[in-house]
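User: My collaborator sent over this chain with a note saying "see what the structure looks like." That's all I know about it. Can you take a look?
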Amino acid sequence: PNIVPDKAWMVVDRRTLPGDTSESIAAEIERALSLAGASDVQITDLRMGKEPLYLAPEHAAFQICRRALERCGSSQPAPASVAFGTDAGLFARAGIPSLVIGPGSITRAHTDSEYVEIDQLERMVGVYEQILEGV
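Assistant: Without extra context I'll predict from the sequence alone. Here is the result:
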Protein backbone atom coordinates (compact mmCIF):
# COMPACT_ATOMS: atom_id res chain seq x y z
CA PRO A 1 0.00 0.00 0.00
CA ASN A 2 0.99 3.61 -0.49
CA ILE A 3 2.37 5.52 2.45
CA VAL A 4 1.50 9.22 2.68
CA PRO A 5 3.62 11.29 5.07
CA ASP A 6 1.89 13.61 7.51
CA LYS A 7 4.28 16.43 6.61
CA ALA A 8 6.25 17.56 3.57
CA TRP A 9 8.27 20.61 2.63
CA MET A 10 8.89 22.52 -0.54
CA VAL A 11 11.49 25.13 -1.46
CA VAL A 12 10.53 27.79 -4.00
CA ASP A 13 12.95 30.31 -5.49
CA ARG A 14 10.79 33.28 -6.37
CA ARG A 15 12.71 36.49 -7.06
CA THR A 16 11.39 39.55 -5.26
CA LEU A 17 10.21 42.71 -6.97
CA PRO A 18 9.78 46.26 -5.66
CA GLY A 19 6.70 46.31 -3.45
CA ASP A 20 6.90 42.62 -2.51
CA THR A 21 6.56 41.70 1.14
CA SER A 22 6.58 38.36 2.92
CA GLU A 23 2.81 38.72 3.27
CA SER A 24 2.18 39.47 -0.41
CA ILE A 25 4.37 36.57 -1.51
CA ALA A 26 2.61 34.20 0.93
CA ALA A 27 -0.77 35.33 -0.46
CA GLU A 28 0.47 34.75 -4.02
CA ILE A 29 1.62 31.23 -3.15
CA GLU A 30 -1.65 30.49 -1.33
CA ARG A 31 -3.63 31.60 -4.43
CA ALA A 32 -1.50 29.33 -6.64
CA LEU A 33 -1.99 26.39 -4.26
CA SER A 34 -5.74 27.01 -4.19
CA LEU A 35 -5.91 27.11 -8.00
CA ALA A 36 -3.97 23.84 -8.05
CA GLY A 37 -6.54 22.26 -5.72
CA ALA A 38 -4.20 22.22 -2.73
CA SER A 39 -5.98 24.76 -0.54
CA ASP A 40 -5.46 22.54 2.52
CA VAL A 41 -1.67 23.13 2.32
CA GLN A 42 -0.43 25.56 4.95
CA ILE A 43 2.56 27.89 4.66
CA THR A 44 4.36 27.75 7.99
CA ASP A 45 7.77 29.26 7.21
CA LEU A 46 8.28 31.80 4.46
CA ARG A 47 11.58 33.66 4.27
CA MET A 48 12.35 36.52 1.95
CA GLY A 49 16.00 35.89 1.10
CA LYS A 50 16.84 39.10 -0.76
CA GLU A 51 14.98 42.36 -0.36
CA PRO A 52 13.58 43.89 -3.56
CA LEU A 53 15.36 47.03 -4.74
CA TYR A 54 14.02 50.17 -6.35
CA LEU A 55 15.40 53.70 -6.56
CA ALA A 56 13.28 56.32 -8.30
CA PRO A 57 14.94 57.88 -11.38
CA GLU A 58 14.45 61.36 -9.90
CA HIS A 59 16.44 60.47 -6.75
CA ALA A 60 19.73 62.40 -6.43
CA ALA A 61 21.83 59.21 -6.18
CA PHE A 62 20.25 57.87 -9.36
CA GLN A 63 20.92 61.15 -11.18
CA ILE A 64 24.56 61.26 -10.03
CA CYS A 65 25.14 57.75 -11.38
CA ARG A 66 23.37 58.56 -14.65
CA ARG A 67 25.49 61.69 -15.19
CA ALA A 68 28.69 59.83 -14.30
CA LEU A 69 27.89 57.13 -16.85
CA GLU A 70 27.12 59.75 -19.52
CA ARG A 71 30.32 61.72 -18.83
CA CYS A 72 32.41 58.59 -19.13
CA GLY A 73 30.83 57.60 -22.44
CA SER A 74 29.24 54.47 -21.12
CA SER A 75 26.81 52.71 -23.42
CA GLN A 76 25.09 50.98 -20.52
CA PRO A 77 21.50 49.91 -21.14
CA ALA A 78 18.64 51.91 -19.68
CA PRO A 79 17.86 51.17 -16.02
CA ALA A 80 15.67 48.10 -15.65
CA SER A 81 14.47 45.45 -13.24
CA VAL A 82 16.64 42.36 -13.24
CA ALA A 83 16.20 38.80 -12.03
CA PHE A 84 19.26 38.40 -9.83
CA GLY A 85 19.87 38.87 -6.14
CA THR A 86 22.00 41.55 -4.54
CA ASP A 87 22.57 42.86 -1.02
CA ALA A 88 21.72 46.39 -2.20
CA GLY A 89 18.10 45.79 -1.15
CA LEU A 90 19.26 45.36 2.45
CA PHE A 91 21.01 48.74 2.33
CA ALA A 92 17.93 50.37 0.80
CA ARG A 93 15.71 48.91 3.52
CA ALA A 94 18.11 50.45 6.09
CA GLY A 95 17.49 53.87 4.49
CA ILE A 96 20.64 54.00 2.34
CA PRO A 97 19.76 54.95 -1.27
CA SER A 98 21.03 52.04 -3.37
CA LEU A 99 21.33 50.87 -6.94
CA VAL A 100 23.48 48.30 -8.71
CA ILE A 101 26.09 49.48 -11.19
CA GLY A 102 29.28 47.88 -12.44
CA PRO A 103 31.29 46.57 -15.37
CA GLY A 104 30.82 43.31 -17.21
CA SER A 105 27.84 41.30 -18.33
CA ILE A 106 25.43 39.62 -15.94
CA THR A 107 25.24 36.73 -18.42
CA ARG A 108 28.87 35.89 -17.59
CA ALA A 109 28.61 36.50 -13.84
CA HIS A 110 29.08 33.49 -11.57
CA THR A 111 29.91 31.14 -14.44
CA ASP A 112 32.97 28.97 -15.01
CA SER A 113 34.13 31.49 -17.63
CA GLU A 114 33.37 34.72 -15.75
CA TYR A 115 35.41 37.74 -16.84
CA VAL A 116 35.23 41.49 -17.33
CA GLU A 117 36.69 43.27 -20.34
CA ILE A 118 39.63 45.51 -19.34
CA ASP A 119 38.17 48.54 -21.17
CA GLN A 120 34.88 48.11 -19.27
CA LEU A 121 36.74 47.93 -15.98
CA GLU A 122 38.78 51.05 -16.81
CA ARG A 123 35.63 52.93 -17.85
CA MET A 124 33.93 52.03 -14.58
CA VAL A 125 36.92 53.36 -12.62
CA GLY A 126 36.17 56.71 -14.29
CA VAL A 127 32.46 56.36 -13.47
CA TYR A 128 33.24 55.63 -9.82
CA GLU A 129 35.57 58.63 -9.68
CA GLN A 130 32.78 60.83 -11.06
CA ILE A 131 30.32 59.44 -8.52
CA LEU A 132 32.71 60.11 -5.65
CA GLU A 133 33.16 63.69 -6.89
CA GLY A 134 29.34 64.05 -6.86
CA VAL A 135 29.03 65.05 -10.53
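A starting point for your reply to your collaborator: The two ends are 72 Å apart (CA to CA).
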